[in-house]
Amino acid sequence: MLQKTRSQSTHLTRQGDHLAELGQRFGWQALVTKAGQQRRSGPEAVVCERTAYRVERIFNRRKSRGHLAPLFVTRHAHIEGLPYRLTRGGRVGTVTEFVLRRSLETAPASLPGLPPENKPKRTDKPPAERSLKALAAIALTIIKTATGADVLRRLTPLSGLQEEILQRLGWGTAL
């Protein structure tokens, strides 16, 4: 049996002292959740929120890094598949960033040369875009004969930064 309940607030009062106390304890950000305190305490919720990899960040990256023109799709399968395709790169970037940052935290280290404007600068929290851009210079050339047999494979030499990124992602340089 389905029961609908509706409530209406007729009078609201601001609890300024209580809000000031919470602001002093937790910072300026207000967090609202349906989860009760038995699931997560206030400080745990704040830590979780501040360190979370959020879906909004994926979409913000996608919108700010590339041009998205309006799309006209008519098939239902295309409508269902479009969000998956648009967010796939974001998911790969988020996982890459998470693994790389966790690796740099467990064995305290930092990566040099990721900011293109300041090559000597080191960072221990590299953004996924810059890490993947550092790997973008890797090129594999395969020369084949007319019969389709491989004749020559050539991989551009890896820089020290590229080798370290691959090692920290768990791929290794023999990849």
- The biggest beta sheet, please? 2 strands, antiparallel
Uncertain spans, ≥5 residues at pLDDT below 50? none
In round numbers, the mean pLDDT is: 79
Provide the domain count: 1
| Number of DSSP helical runs | 6
Radius of gyration: 24 Å
- The overall strand count is 4
The SSE string, one letter per element, is: HHHHEEHEEH
Strand portion: 5-15%
Gross morphology is: extended
Please give the order of strands in the largest beta sheet: 1-2
Percent helix, as a range, is 40-55%
Euclidean distance between termini CA atoms: 58 Å
Structural class, by secondary structure, is mainly alpha
Question: Explain this structure to me?
Answer:
With 175 residues, the protein is mostly helical. The protein has one domain. The chain has helices at residues 16-26, 42-51, 55-65, 76-106, 128-135, 160-168; strands at 111-112, 122-123, 140-144, 150-155. The strands form two sheets. A two-stranded antiparallel ribbon has the order 1-2. It has a two-stranded antiparallel sheet with strand order 3-4. Strand 3 (140-144) and strand 4 form a beta hairpin. It is extended and about 80 Å long. The mean pLDDT is 79.
Q: Which secondary structure elements does this structure contain, and how are they paired or packed?
A:
Layout: H1 16-26, H2 42-51, H3 55-65, H4 76-106, E1 111-112, E2 122-123, H5 128-135, E3 140-144, E4 150-155, H6 160-168
Antiparallel strand pairs: 1-2, 3-4
